[in-house]
Amino acid sequence: MDPSDPSRLSPPRAAPETICARSTPLPRSSSPPLVPAPQLSVVYRFEGLDHVDAVYAGQADGFVYARDGHPNAAALADRVAALEGAESAAVYASGMAATAAVLLAELGSGDHIAFAEQLYGKTISLIDRELRRFGIEASGFDATRPETLASVLRDRTRLVMVETLSNPLLRVPDLPSLAEMANRAGAKLVVDHTFAPLLCRPLELGASYVVHSGTKLIGGHSDLTLGLVAGPAEAMDRVRRLGSTFGLSGNPFESWLACRGLATLPLRSARCCATAMELAERLGRSPAVRAVHYPGLPDHPDHDRARSLLQGGFGAIVTLDLGDRGRADAFIRHLGQIPFAPSLGDVATTLSHPATTSHRGQEPELLARHGITPGLIRLSIGLEDPADLSADLEQALAAVS
After folding, report:
1. Catalytic residue among 79, 188, 201, 216
2. Does the active-site annotation cover 120?
3. Which of 120, 128, 158, 302 is catalytic?
4. CA gap 146, 137 in Å, rounded
5. Is residue 192 among the annotated active site residues?
6. How many C-beta neighbours within 10 Å does residue 378 have?
7. Under a CB-based contact definition with an 8 Å cutoff, are residues 101 and 229 in contact?
8. Which residues contact 78 (CB under 8 A, 6 or more apart)?
9. pLDDT for res 5
10. What is the reported pLDDT for 336?
């Protein structure tokens, strides 16, 4: 009997309770929908025991339970793997869940991880605080100075973690040199690529894993929370299994939304990078701004490296230093249309204050060492007209002055 035959679901004269409780399959169609639909089911049906055995063994296509995988996550993972030039990719509930999946898959008690001190604040907390409870040691280094990595590598170093563009000062690491040093020491390089999707391919530069917060530029609309990991097939099998065991998997609807956002990523990236470059140059000429951090500017300390590493722009983030917390607060309060919203990657421009949001709770000496001051403002550039954005920024800076 055809398992989709409605007569199989309810007897001919079923009670109303039975009719309401049992689902009816969608009508068959010889013309499939142009846009794949969200597949929201938590669980999938099987014809019998041989069928479920075949799906679990990979001998038949199919899904079992949404925490282990579902069609929308598979579709998103395939596209991200293709973008990164990876053999495989997986979807997780957030960028931090994606990072945690890699760390937990690769590290055990007695192991060591070297991390860039310029990482996102929550990532540093995960590595340098939480993992220590499990007997995992950690050491920080300056990702823009490869020699500092050499000084912290150990026999038990299993991972080295950096960002393509650091948060929030947009420092650019020498990825090929760091990958070579890590691999020579028997470690794997993990690159958080959240700030620079499409601008380079870390796996081709020697990285073993690429991690994204899909919440940001890939999703692109501030309406989903997801994380992504891409890497070699064998290693990703372990990361994928661990993600399911720890319950880190991403859900179907947000995976579907991310596929929608991914469709316009190249257009959004090009537009935002071009506008960011223009605004960085304008802000750099303002007497009210103490410093502008953007790798496209010639005075950025990693400008030459960014030019050789990045393709198609220098990113959608511009960070400026207004000197102190009071001036930063006045700037935020006088902006007309740019909201203070502690995230990034939306179609509209937003701003954040790293010292009180992304890097809140970090050690003061670490913040000071890396120039994360109370006057620092991080702008995430959107799709608006550059002249309108410039006018809004200039009137806020005039109020600060």
Report:
1. 216
2. yes
3. 120
4. 20
5. yes
6. 23
7. yes
8. 89
9. 54
10. 82
